[in-house]
Known about the structure:
Blueprint: E1 4-10, E2 13-20, H1 23-39, E3 48-56, H2 59-77, E4 79-90, E5 96-106, E6 120-121, E7 127-130, E8 136-143
Antiparallel strand pairs: 1-2, 2-8, 3-5, 4-5, 6-8, 7-8
Helix pairs in contact: 1-2
Amino acid sequence: MSGTFREFDHTGDIGIEAEAPDEVSLYATCARALFDIIAGRAPIETCGSLDIRVEAPDREMLMVRWLNELLYVHATERWIFREFDVAIGEKPDGGRWLEGMARGDRFDPARHALRTELKAVTYHQLSARRDEDGIWRARLVFDI
C-alpha cells in the first residue's frame, strides 16, 4: 500500500494534497506527509512503535483526529514516525474508527533536525474521498 502527496502553500499555513489507491493507504500517506513536514525526509530509525485508536462521526473528522493524535504524541513524547499500519471500519452507530500502529524513533537533536513546527490539523479546505476514477484523495491544511 502506498500513496503520494505534495505540499502547497497556504497563507500562514502549509497544506497537502494526497492520493492513494485505497482508503487505508490514504490515512497512512497523510501521516507520512505530516512527519515529512515536521522532520523532512531524513532517515528515521523504526526502533519503537505506538498503537493509536481514534473514532469520529465521518471520514474527514477521522482524518483530523488521527493526524492530531500523531501530532500530540510528537509534541508531548517527542516521537518522529515514518511507517504506519492502519485499519479502519464503521461503527454500528454509523461513526468510523481507526486503529493505527506508528513506527519511528524519539527525537534526538544529535541525529534529527526539525523542519517545521506544526500546531494542529485544521478543518479548512478539508476533504477525504474516493473520486470517480477510484483514487482516494485528501486535502488538508496544517496550522503552523
